[in-house]
Amino acid sequence: MSDSGRSATPLSVSPNGADQAEAIKAIRLRHPWRNVVAVILVAMLILFVVDASQREAYGWENFGKYIFDKRISQAAGYTILLTVYSMIIAIILGVTLAVMRLSDNPVVKGIAWLYLWVFRGTPVYVQLVFWGLFATIYSTIDVGIPFTEPWLSLETNDLISVFWLAVIGLALNESAYMAEIVRAGILSVDKGQDEAATALGMSWLQTMTRVVIPQAMRIIIPPTGNEVISMLKTTSLVTAIPFSLELYGRSRDISVVIFDPIPLLLVASAWYLLFTSILMVGQYFLEKRFSRGVGQARPEKAGTETGAITLKTGAIVAPGEASDSSTDPSGKEHR
Amino acid sequence: MTNATTSGAPMVHADRVSKSFGSNEVLKSISLSVPQGEVMCLVGPSGSGKSTFLRCINHLENVDAGRLSVDGVLVGYEERGDKLYELKPREAARQRRDIGMVFQRFNLFPHMTALENIIEAPIRVNRVKKDAAMAKGRELLAQVGLAEKEDAYPAHLSGGQQQRVAIARALAMEPKLMLFDEPTSALDPELVGEVLDVMKGLAESGMTMIVVTHEMGFAREVADQLVFMDGGVVVESGDPDEVLGNPQHERTRAFLSKVL
Predict the structure, then answer these.
(1) pTM of the predicted model, to two decimals?
(2) Is residue A228's pLDDT more than 50?
(3) Is A164 exposed, middle or buried (0-12, 13-18, 19+ CB in 10 A)?
(4) Average pLDDT, chain A
(5) How confident is the model at residue A5 (pLDDT cuts 50, 70, 90)?
């Protein structure tokens, strides 16, 4: 007995011990292959790191020189601004579109559908190029009654800077995805909730803001977090506008000057990784906040950007309703 | 809005009410009357239209034909001249404030504690001050025997406790009429009693109630009027002892033989 030294559980003595069966003391199943695989993987990783640290092409000297360069940290600021502004606009617009899609008015519903069709059906890069040409297509923005002399005519270029074109371009694209996420969240809330609030005399707006949306948040938050992380990276595409003061654009510009592209790509990647890591931590706490009252449910490991919607079906989601949200709002292709 | 309610006048009056979902006629010319302060129990097999009728009373569904009024006021419509006008959402909401409803599946707001569930509508809809609403809410929780549960979320309450909170939530709006849609059907058998006790207390306090139920014992004890519905029509109605003890209709007898 003592040679195994691996008793499964400490022997528990019950009060009326005599007829208690002896606790099982089995020799644990060994998994030799797990160890082998682990050793191989770790060895490969060490090899890669050691090799990379010595390889000329990575240009670690330049990496060290530029990682805290003032231009880069300013660019990081622009990246954050682009992300924050476009997400704020996208969320507001997304909620509006989601409500429009759930409207009883067929015209309103159709227009929301049309919007989603266009903005989800074309690549964000192409959309950004279009926004870059906005001033070419609409050289002036006129205010007045259609088909009459405008009261006010403004040069587009004076009105909207390249930065705001980038924000608008990113936001309009993102709002289409946010709309689907919000819609899935709203649909996941049991219809009985709506009825209970209505029966209490609450108005549509009160029902939405006090009862439906707070519950939908639990479904909306995880994919929205993924969207923020995704947006942070998508900002690198605004060079299409062209706007190049953000992280990727700036590091490309510098690398062109010093004829050494790789270290600056590493610099940009390091900054992106820093931001996404911070966002993931923030998302964990947000999910915790919005799972209030759902039994002992704890947020699952924050989904990575693969963005499988985590449907923690609590008591609220009726089986029938749950399938509605399987439309997987975040199931978009990687951009 | 009439506020002069003479005792004895019907709280709920249905005059040949019909309702269809598509081609499915759920209510066929229902005529009923519930006097103020009385308890009416609606019984019948599932699909007989009991719940739909209840939902029509607070305009969760609208009526296709006939007239349905609560406390002398037409539900969901306004009659001007010889035309009926659909009510605006705000006016419909105002009508619902005076009608409490308790659902089979409780429908408590899961993201709010028991007390928050109760004070939500008084604060938002009736613009009651938060302190006053909370005092009233605690009083109601005590009334349903859950004084110590005010900070519990619905997920941490048993079914019976949830339903009692739901009753307290409806009462917080100080309704003049309470509707119960199979309030004990989703409960484990041992939890049914605690909910029925609360409802009995409410009936004794003089609340006008319409209860859709399968609890014949409760109906016999509490109801002033028992209505048996089947296939969208009122088959038989009257004194509960009379209907349950000496049913006149074959359909009533067949149903009662299964549930009693």
Answers:
(1) 0.77
(2) yes
(3) middle
(4) 83
(5) very low
* Amino acid (one-letter) located at A249: G
Assess A103–B contact: CB distance below 8 Å, yes or no: no
Interface ipTM = 0.90
Q: Length of chain A, please?
A: 335
A81 CB within 8 Å of a chain B CB: no
- Smallest CA-to-CA distance from B231 within B13, B3, B26, B65 is with B26
Instruction: Count CB pairs under 8 A between chains A and B.
Output: 80
The whole-angstrom separation of Cα A68 and Cα A75 is 11
Residue A32 CB coordination number (10 Å): 7
Contacts with A193 from chain B: Cβ below 8 Å: 107, 109
Residue in A89, A70, A171, A90 with CA at minimum distance from that of residue A128: A171
pLDDT band at A218 (very low <50, low <70, confident <90, very high): confident
Instruction: Return the minimum-mean-pLDDT range out of A36-45, A142-151, B184-193.
Output: A142-151
Crossing angle between the packed helical segments B89-97 and A191-199, to the nearest 10 degrees? 80
Higher per-residue confidence, B22 vs A302: B22
Q: Which residues of B touch A (CB under 8 A)?
A: 58, 60, 89-90, 93-94, 96-97, 99-101, 103, 105, 107-113, 120-121, 124-125, 153-156, 166, 169-170, 173
Tokens of B227: 């209505």
Q: Sheet harboring B177-181: ordered strands across?
A: B99-102, B177-181, B208-212, B39-43, B225-230, B233-238
Residue B95 parent element (H or E): helix B89-97
CA of B116, closest CA in chain A: separation in Å? Answer: 11
In this prediction, residues A74-89 reach a mean pLDDT of 96
Most distant CA atoms of chain B, gap in Å? 55
Coil, strand or helix at A313 = coil
Cis peptide upstream of residue B122 (ω within 30 degrees of 0): no
* Cα B172 to Cα B100: distance, rounded to the nearest angstrom: 9
Query: Per residue in B10-66, pLDDT tens?
Result: 999 999 999 999 999 999 999 999 999 999 999 999 889 999 999 999 999 999 999
CB count, 10 Å around CB of A240?
A: 18
